[in-house]
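help with this.
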Amino acid sequence: MLVADVEAFSSRPDTEQMRTREALYEEFRAAFGENHWAMCLCEDRGDGLLIVVPPRIPKAMVLGTFLPRLERVLADRRRGDPLLRIRIAVHAGDVHFDEHGLGGHAVNQTFRLCDSAPLRAAIRTARSDSALLVSDAIHDNVVRGGYENISAASFHAVDVSVKETRTRAWLHVAGDDEAAVRVARETAAAAARETAAEDGSGERGRGRGGERGREGDGDRDRTADPSAGGVSLRAGGDLLIERDSMIAGRDIAVGDTGRGRRKPRWRRS
């Protein structure tokens, strides 16, 4: 299945939005060809569309024939009417039908790939008019298959995080591989910074004894090793202070630990 979304659609006035929608369908029909287009199931999504391609149309034809043809017609269009810059996501899986339309996990996954930050960044900076993001499944089964007009070297791994979806996908920008490489590097660098920040906050959250502090520990007893001259504390109550220790609180008992402990001397602080 394929999801397409027009870049910067909502910022256009109503009349231009309607003209853009008509152009979107026109260019996809031209890219697929009338016969193949008639075989597909298309569902309108306002500023984009969902296309379900039947199994009898090879996936390699979608990536190696239809989408390159789409990029060419978009480039030709740009000379006179630069309305269409399109994000495209491609995935494969089961599609479910009911009286309301199409649905299912695979459909949701495709829409989230199309809405992902790496794909948005790619179309925003690319010199070409389309940017493509394919799922790991499409990459493994189609991109790496050695099919004509599909270069695996022009697909670059990116991490995608949208809502509940955390996955790896592959970014391709026709005619502007530098844009895809740049976005892939930026995405990897951002992921590395996030991991480092999480590791750093984890270290800061550890106590001197190597145990991570937890909320609510103020209501728990914290006891140091008596042989090390430590301190036994109970928040909100009496405090037992071992020799050579100092603390301010409520009632304080000063004395030795173990046998031979002297009777505590109580002093109100």
Notes: Residues 177-204 form the longest helix (28 residues). The two ends are 74 Å apart (CA to CA). Helices lie at 14-32, 34-39, 59-78, 105-114, 117-125, 136-141, 177-204. Residues 207-232, 247-261 have pLDDT under 50 and may be disordered.
